């Protein structure tokens, strides 16, 4: 986004876990702070140095160690690019359990460290479930080896979970064992129009009930998002041109039998049209059209990024009240900015973005802290899948209570007593007041 600019004067590019270990041992002894950096595609400034931290680039740790086609377990180093891994496991009939717009450059280590979500979450769940083992270099250089490939293991504390979503503040992930599901043999996508947000919710409920195990993505975008993507890029075209509706859904199914999936999907579409949940729809006729549907969805954040000022929020909010926040925000900012709502509706993950020609104090104060306060009131989380990074390190208190934040500080102090690992990220600086937790 060009929003975070670092000042680091030194970057190191280790090739092995041993080298990472020696780097951290040296930095810890000399009180030198480090910032781990993967594909640098994060949206909250987590991989950008704040002052003069040493950048530890993970790019050369890019080896695939093994793939077991029977168990579906991939073992690889942290610097492997997500798209490369997906291509590699495809040869064994498998796929990565996560997929996101940045797949061509993001690293699996960064995905794990931010607990990235993306578009396959609805079907394959969180990395807290898919990651079976990790190798992590701790602040003092010690290598924590919990790189197991077991689906089940109840021996003691599940230490790897601490590092999933820790954004490199507790240790540097150097390798991972990941469970990869079978690659679907049949894929289908439909682009649907709904008159109201409650119709979107009705469609989601129906999709879960009627499509069951083949439902693999349920993404929504409002008309403002669709118009922006279509208006910005020539190759983004709405499959429902001229549709007057306010909301659109990209629904994907993945399964093992094309005829069976088609039958289910068409029965669902007929019933949804008949009940009035959807008012129109288009089904992708082939792989090219399926890609074109996804291009619309991926075009939204890209088109937002062409604006000079971008206020970007990634929120978890109960689905029933999710869109109210977009409407409230639109009313607050008025014609000072353009407000859009889209996201992974199936996972309760709203992407609320406000874009304008320039940043201004007036606009900022209309947006924040309102967006965080309202999210907290609705029982949501201020970060669903992008992490806290430096953007939201002082916002954790909107979602987590004092006892949780205190325990996090204790964990941080125990694992990184000198505070050399990715400082100023995730947790507010000690002594800094976090927003109050009323409820
Ligand atoms: C997305 O779902 O498109 C991503 O999380 C990125 C974004 O909102 O910009
Ligand atoms: Zn997202």
Structural notes for this entry:
The chain is an alpha+beta fold and 439 residues long. The protein folds into three domains: 1-183 and 400-423 and 432-439, 2-Layer Sandwich (Uridine Diphospho-n-acetylenolpyruvylglucosamine Reductase, domain 3), CATH 3.30.465; 186-303, Alpha-Beta Plaits (2-Layer Sandwich), CATH 3.30.70.2190; 307-399, 2-Layer Sandwich (Alpha-Beta Plaits), CATH 3.30.70.2740. The protein contains 14 helices and 15 strands. It has helices at residues 17-29, 82-90, 108-114, 121-124, 127-130, 160-163, 197-211, 223-232, 258-275, 287-304, 322-333, 361-367, 370-377, 402-415; strands spanning 11-12, 34-37, 54-57, 64-68, 73-77, 131-137, 143-146, 172-179, 186-194, 215-222, 247-255, 280-283, 309-316, 338-344, 349-356. The strands form three sheets. Strands 12-9-11-10-14-15-13 form a seven-stranded antiparallel sheet, with helices on both faces. A five-stranded antiparallel sheet has the order 4-5-8-6-7. Strand 4 (64-68) and strand 5 (73-77) form a beta hairpin. Helix 7 (197-211) runs antiparallel to helix 9. The longest helix is centred in the middle third of the chain and has 18 residues, at 258-275. The two termini are 34 Å apart. The structure holds D-malate (MLT) and zinc ion. Residues 343-344, 351, 385 line the site of zinc ion. InterPro entries: FAD-bd_oxidored_4_C (IPR004113), FAD-bd_PCMH (IPR016166), FAD-bd_PCMH-like_sf (IPR036318), FAD-bd_PCMH_sub1 (IPR016167), FAD-bd_PCMH_sub2 (IPR016169), FAD-linked_Oxase-like_C (IPR016164), FAD-oxidored/transferase_4 (IPR051264), Oxid_FAD_bind_N (IPR006094). Pfam families: FAD-oxidase_C, FAD_binding_4. Its EC number is 1.1.99.39.
């Amino acid at each position: 986004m060009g929003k975070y600019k670092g000042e680091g004067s030194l970057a190191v590019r280790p090739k092995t876990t041993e080298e990472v270990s020696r780097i951290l041992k040296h930095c810890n002894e000399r009180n030198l702070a480090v910032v781990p950096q993967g594909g640098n595609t994060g949206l909250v400034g987590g991989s950008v140095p704040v002052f003069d931290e040493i950048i530890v680039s993970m790019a050369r740790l890019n080896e695939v160690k093994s793939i077991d086609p029977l168990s579906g377990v991939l073992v690889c180093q942290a610097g492997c690019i997500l798209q490369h891994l997906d291509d590699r496991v495809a040869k064994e009939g498998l796929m990565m359990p996560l997929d996101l717009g940045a797949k061509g450059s993001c690293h699996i280590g960064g995905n794990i460290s931010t607990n990235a979500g993306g578009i396959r979450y609805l079907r394959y769940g969180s990395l807290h479930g898919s990651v079976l083992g990790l190798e992590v270099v701790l602040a003092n250089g010690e290598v924590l080896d919990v790189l197991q490939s077991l689906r089940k293991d109840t021996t003691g504390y599940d230490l790897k979970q601490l590092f999933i979503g820790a954004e490199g503040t507790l240790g540097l992930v150097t390798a991972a064992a990941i469970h990869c599901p079978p690659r679907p043999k049949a894929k289908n996508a439909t682009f649907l129009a709904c008159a109201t947000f409650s119709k979107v919710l009705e469609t989601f409920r129906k999709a879960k009930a009627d499509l069951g195990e083949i439902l693999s993505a349920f993404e929504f975008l409002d008309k403002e998002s669709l118009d922006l993507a279509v208006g910005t890029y020539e190759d983004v075209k709405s499959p429902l041109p001229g549709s007057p509706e306010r909301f659109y859904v990209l629904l994907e199914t993945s399964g093992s039998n094309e005829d069976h999936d088609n039958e289910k999907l068409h029965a669902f579409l007929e019933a949804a049209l008949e009940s009035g949940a959807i008012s129109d729809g288009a089904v992708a006729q082939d792989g090219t059209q399926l890609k074109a549907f996804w291009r619309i969805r991926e075009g939204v954040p890209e088109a937002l990024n062409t604006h000079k000022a971008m206020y970007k929020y990634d929120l978890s909010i109960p689905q029933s009240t999710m869109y109210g926040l977009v409407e409230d925000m639109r009313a607050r900012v008025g014609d000072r900015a353009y407000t859009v709502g889209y996201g992974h509706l199936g996972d309760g993950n709203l992407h609320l973005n406000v874009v304008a020609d320039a940043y201004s104090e007036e606009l900022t104060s209309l947006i924040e802290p309102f967006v965080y306060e309202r999210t907290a009131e609705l029982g949501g989380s201020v970060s669903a899948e992008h992490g806290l990074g430096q953007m939201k390190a002082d916002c954790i208190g909107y979602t987590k209570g004092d006892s949780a934040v205190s325990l996090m500080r204790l964990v941080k102090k125990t694992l990184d007593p000198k505070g050399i690992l990715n400082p100023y990220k995730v947790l507010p600086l000690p002594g800094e007041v976090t927003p109050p937790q009323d409820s």
